[in-house]
Specification:
By secondary structure, the chain is of the alpha/beta class. It has ten helices and seven strands. The protein has a single domain, classed as 3-Layer(aba) Sandwich (Rossmann fold).
Length: 279
Amino acid sequence: MDTAAFAAALDDVFEGQLEDGLPRDGRFAGLAEAVPGFCTPAELAVLNLAARMLPAGEAYLEVGTFKGRSLCGALLDAPDRTYVAVESYQEFGMHASSSRAALAGNLARYADRAVVLHDADCFGLLARPGAVREPVGVYFYDGTHTALTHYLALGVVEPLLADEALVLVDDASWPMVAEASRRYVRRHAGWSVVRDIRTPREYDPIWANGLLVLAYRRPAGAPRRIARDIRWRLPVQTRLRGPARSLVLRALHRLPWLVPLALRLVPKGPRTVRQPDPV
């Protein structure tokens, strides 16, 4: 993926300033109305540009697909490539069977490309060699939002990335997302920040909770293996935190009267938006 060409083309996708978030293509607004989800038309325009610029022989990978709004937006006029989506169907009170059916229906209605769908925990899946058939040229992470998962989200995918790849991290206005992502970028060679789009408030109608655009260029001779600091963090997520969280979510689905109590117990401070750090 030519990340420099993507960066040069990004502003032209919008009327006026990028920060104003008004896509030239009006179809994204219609898609956002038709398909349930959280990506704004501006975010859909960014994902779509990335998918349209994806070169032959590389794959588009998305984690956290919900009911398909982001994928449907990315696939508008997209080339014939490999598109892979990973969804665990645990967030937002989703019931797996009905959510799978909604996702499949939306893709059939609004996307004209085949998608490989994985009903799985992304960290266990992506840690396996060959989890995606082609090198990943575009990666969009909108999965579980904790400091650990966002650090792992970059670490587990790095061996799967093409030698040059575009990485998009959703909800980058939340400090826990920004701090974990930038910590990984600082500690590992080959990563750089292309754009850091922050929002003045949570769930902003233009850019939702922000979007971090990263470029990865594999250093010469760098091995395609998971880094040491990811190898010890991965079992913490896949064997402890992930299963515990799944247990809690299943309990909340069965006992919805517990949801208000759970919301009161979850600290809201880490999700308060803030302005971007210097690049």
